[in-house]
Amino acid sequence: MEEEINVFCSMTEAVKEVATTIRECKPLDVHPDLYGAVMTQGGFSDEALMAALSHLLDNKAQGVGFVAMADTHRVLWLRSWLGKHYY
Fold first, then answer.
1. Which PANTHER family match (predicted)?
2. Which of 74, 26, 24 shows the shortest CA–CA distance to 53?
3. Would the pTM of this model clear 0.70, i.e. be above it?
4. What distance, in Å, lies between the first and last C-alpha atoms of the chain?
């Protein structure tokens, strides 16, 4: 009986730890169109676009702004940012 109580207590503690971990997880708040807006731009290597995507994922406000831009402005932004940070 004592062994069963110990097992039950251990399981209870494990469930509490899982619940705490789930509560502490924050969902990734990313604009749903960001990946497509970046990775479908022509004229850039996939590696360069991935670098820009990584930056935009790290900087939410810029990512949201990038998605809102007209396609021509996205190209200008990518040329400017990649010229400063990638090439």
1. 10A19I.15
2. 74
3. no
4. 68
